[in-house]
Structure formats: structure tokens, C-alpha cells
Specification:
By secondary structure, this protein is mostly helical. Helix content is 73%, strand content 0%. Helix 1 runs antiparallel to helix 2, helix 4 packs across helix 7 and helix 5 packs across helix 7. The radius of gyration is 18 Å and the shape is globular.
């Protein structure tokens, strides 16, 4: 991969990669670091990236591996000494109010609240479920592509998506029932 091809990847896939990093990390600072590290690692591995194939998938796998390494290192450090949480919760503005120009303010607020509920539910999923959900729904990758990224069988990806959907449905039903009642 040449410098021009890397710049083109950043131009084409940068927003998607950053959005994925933001959802994985949960806070802006961690997402920024993960995003930068992803493209730095891509530059280091420039001989292995084949621009003609699917560079977005390769960049997503780099981001995912870097995140898993950070989580593993963090867990190891937590055994040694207590430190601040790697993914502190923060208010993440998922939807720009201008993206709903034809809807009323109430609809915008309800949509934003619903998106925040879904995001919180996804963040609470175990890592083995969270990554496939984000890759499938956010990045719109196929089951086979996710299986390749995570290096697991396609059937395992389908099973994890099914289990994640089941958990999300239960979680969201419980939250919505609490809000109504």
C-alpha cells in the first residue's frame, strides 16, 4: 500500500473506522487513540494490505485487534493495581438533531433517547457478542466477513448474533417497561 492508497483509505473509510472505534471504546479520547493507532498500524503493515481487495475489512480487523490487546493489558494491570476504568462512560451524541429536518422536536428527542438506550444495551453486551453486533449492524459486514475478521466459524458468528439479539431484546423490553410503568 502506498501513501496515496493509505490516504485514499482514510478518505473513503475514515468515518466508518472512527465510528466503529467510538462504539468499541465508548469515550472520545479512547476512540481517538484507537483510530490513530489503527492507521499507524496499517502504515506499519503496508506490505500486507492489498488495496485491490477489501481494505475496510482489514482496517476494521486492525482496530478490533488493537482494542482487544488494550482490554487484555488493562485487565492484567487491574490484577496488579487498581486504576481508572479504560472505558469511562460519557455522553455520546449519536444523532445530530439536523438529521431529522421534517420531524418535530418531540420525535427528535424520542429518537435520540431510543438510540441512547440501544447503545447502552449494546455496550453492556459481553465482548464476544459486542464485536459481531457492531460489525454486522454498524459496518454492515456479512456473516462470512465477520467470521474472517474474528477468525471464528460463520456458524459461531450467527450464534453470537442470535444470542446478542435475544439479550438486547430482553434488555430493551425491560427498560421500556420500566419507563412506561
Amino acid at each position: 500500500m502506498t501513501k496515496t492508497e493509505l490516504e485514499q483509505c482514510i478518505e473513503e473509510y475514515g468515518k466508518d473506522i472512527y465510528s466503529f472505534c467510538r462504539h468499541l471504546a465508548g469515550c472520545v479520547q479512547e476512540a481517538d487513540d484507537l483510530y490513530q493507532d489503527t492507521f499507524l498500524k496499517a502504515w506499519e503493515l503496508n506490505k500486507k494490505i492489498e488495496y485491490e481487495k477489501n481494505p475496510k475489512s482489514y482496517l476494521l480487523s486492525i482496530a478490533l485487534k488493537l482494542w482487544k490487546n488494550r482490554k487484555r493489558k488493562y485487565a492484567w494491570r487491574m490484577r496488579i493495581a487498581q486504576v481508572l476504568s479504560l472505558t469511562e462512560t460519557s455522553d455520546i451524541d449519536l444523532e445530530d438533531p439536523d438529521s431529522f429536518p421534517e420531524s418535530s422536536i418531540e420525535e427528535q428527542i424520542l429518537q435520540k433517547e431510543e438510540n441512547e438506550l440501544v447503545q447502552k444495551a449494546v455496550e453492556q453486551l459481553p465482548e464476544r457478542f459486542k464485536a459481531p453486533v457492531l460489525l454486522y449492524y454498524m459496518e454492515e459486514l456479512s456473516v462470512e466477513e465477520i467470521a474472517g475478521l474474528l477468525k471464528i466459524p460463520a456458524g459461531t458468528v450467527k450464534s453470537r448474533l442470535f444470542q446478542a439479539r435475544k439479550r438486547l431484546k430482553k434488555e430493551l423490553e425491560d427498560v421500556l417497561n420500566e419507563n412506561i410503568g
